[in-house]
Design a protein that fits this description.
With 74 residues, the chain is mostly beta strands. It has one helix and five strands. It has one domain. The longest helix has 9 residues.
Length: 74
């Protein structure tokens, strides 16, 4: 089942472009998963094929969307 997740960079990181956010996702860096149940740390490996990851960047003013083509891979 396809799911949508909103992520923010962990540990105070921020990005100035979608390409930089994508590079850190592919690199397995930690992000914060924001959900109605609360927040938790995660990485791209925690999601499945077909999931859409919406990453907030530029001080959380912009959103970049990525759909996983394989488990844990953009």
């Amino acid at each position: 089942m396809k799911q949508y997740h909103t992520l923010t960079p962990a540990y105070g990181r921020d990005y100035t472009s979608k390409a930089k956010a994508e590079a850190d996702l592919n690199g397995g860096k930690d992000f914060v998963l924001n959900s109605p149940q609360g927040t938790t740390y995660c990485s791209v490996r925690d999601f499945r094929k077909g999931d859409t990851l919406n990453v907030r960047y530029k001080k959380q003013r912009n959103v970049a969307s990525f759909t996983l083509k394989e488990d844990g891979e953009l």
